[in-house]
Amino acid sequence: MQRAQLPPPSPSRHLAARGLGLAAAFAVVLPLPAAAAEKKPDATPTTAAVLAATRPGDWRMLDAQDTLYLELPQGRVVIELAPAFAPNHVANIRALAREHYYDDVAIVRAQDNYLVQISDPDAKDEAKRRPVKTAKASLPPEFTTPWNARIAFTALPDRDGYAPEVGFSGGFPAARDRKAGRAWLPNCYGTVGVGRLNAPDSGSGAELYVTIGTPPRQLDRNTTVVGRVVQGMDLLSALPRGSGRMGGYDRPEKRPPVQRIRVAADVPGNERSALEVLRTDTPAFRAWVESQRNRREPFYVAQAGHVDVCNLPLPVRAVQPSP
Fold first, then answer.
1. CA dist 286 → 82, 199, 207, 279, 289 (Å)
2. CB count in 10 Å sphere of residue 95
3. How many C-beta atoms surround the C-beta of residue 297 within 10 A?
4. DSSP conformation class of 120
5. Which of 117-121, 124-128, 301-305 has the lowest mean pLDDT?
């Protein structure tokens, strides 16, 4: 496969009435102008206010069967899988994790402003590559999925250059083409996708990539997207960049090790990362989107009135784990 600090969240501008000075031509005393009009409260609350007003039902726990723990020496990366969009690849990735295929693999590539790639370092050497036991070695692509009205989709009000319509589906940034009857997951920051060769059916999930830069939306409908990072992106984005071709590490000892990838359901409850994410099918989510489209925090002097689907990092919070 071919493989800042943002400013803080800003004030709206208020209009105030201005008195007009007027000369008293005939010694006529004119009344003083009316007092400045009261400032009206902003119609759009701040992002923090929206989240503070959420109720327990506005959040959902990650499904342990659809959650992966990518264990690095530096810590844990939590990945939520998207079986509604790539059911066969998600099932294969679970199988690979459960047969310990990912134990002691490596990050073989870290290309600046693009992606990191997780793979068996010996995958190209038939004599050394690790065998696949219960999982499949390759799968037909799942670049898109059939769309129908039963698929939950919260559309964004703003246009997108890569799809007729974008929004969120089941907690994931999503795109759809209703005329073509297809939906897919765009390649946003934190996207987890399946590496492949030129042949569309050459991927299986044995090789995974995570986007760490500007969203490479040209990959949309050209790779199978299987999920997104929910927690731990800082661990991946801070990895040293590879100096070889396309960000590959030119020497084996430079490759950051991967200890293992596990399905959260296979991890004892007291070792799991108890996380909730904001549901994307609620009025609270729509209010949160609007608070991102028009930022009302003190830093901002102008509101964009627009938001990109890849510029909406879904809120995540830690909760007390179940006993």
1. 21, 39, 35, 10, 5
2. 18
3. 16
4. -
5. 124-128
Q: What DSSP designation does 309 have?
A: G
Task: Please list, residue by residue across 107-132, b when 16 or more beta carbons sit within 10 angstroms of its beta carbon and e when fewer do.
Answer: bbbbbeebbbbbbbbeeeeeeeebeb
Measured distance CA(61)–CA(109) in Å, rounded:
32
Instruction: State the number of CA atoms in the 13 A half-sphere of 260 facing the CB.
Output: 11
Residue 8 clears pLDDT 70, i.e. is over it: no
The answer, yes or no, to whether residue 5 has pLDDT greater than 90, is: no
- What is the Cα 224 distance to its own chain's centre? 15
**E strand or H helix at 288:** helix 283-293
- For 47-318, give the CATH class: mainly beta
Residues facing 88 on adjacent strands: none
The structure tokens listed for 231 are 């927690």
Lowest-confidence segment of 71-75, 130-134, 160-164, 167-171 by average pLDDT: 130-134
Alpha carbon distance 56, 61 (integer Å): 10
- Coil/strand/helix, residue 247: helix
Q: Which residues pair with 231 in a beta bridge?
A: 78
- Percentage of residues of the chain with pLDDT beyond 90: 80
Average pLDDT over residues 231-239: 98
Task: Say if residues 166 and 190 touch (Cβ distance below 8 Å).
Answer: no
Task: Dump pLDDT digits (tens) for 42-74.
Answer: 567 999 999 999 999 999 999 999 999 999 999
d(CA 222, CA 296): 37
**What is the C-alpha separation between 270 and 277, in angstroms, rounded?**
19
Residue from 85, 83, 84 nearest 93 by CA: 83
**What does each C-alpha distance from 213 to 88, 181, 188, 234, 310 come to in angstroms?**
27, 30, 9, 12, 11
